[in-house]
Amino acid sequence: MRRVSRNDMIFMAVLVVIAAAVFVFFSATGKESGAYVLVTIDGETYGTYSLKTEQEIPITQDGVTTNVLVIRDGFADMTEADCPDKLCVHQRAISKNNETIVCLPNRVVVQVMGSEESGFDSIAK
Ligand SMILES: [Zn+2]
To answer: Do both 62 and 119 map to the same domain?
Structure first.
């Protein structure tokens, strides 16, 4: 039984266009000079963020913002954290491939990734 309506077709076409746009966006931003950061919590991917886009990223766990990562001038810097030691806040801003900021108490790791290829290598378990 086929029940593909005209609206379904439009919906699928829109999805394909969005997927293509996202793919083009990520392949264009990912290949140039390094640069995005991968944020993981307890080994699980939280998100990836381009170092070219100035942004403030609240890292939330269980509805609580535990760390705030700021990306500015191509550097990623942990500006706020609720951990007791604040070691992550005191770490230098990072910009080069494989540099990391680690917040041990919150199990948050921020790592600079370069090309997609090397990125997949280093996240492989
Ligand atoms: Zn910390």
So the answer is: yes
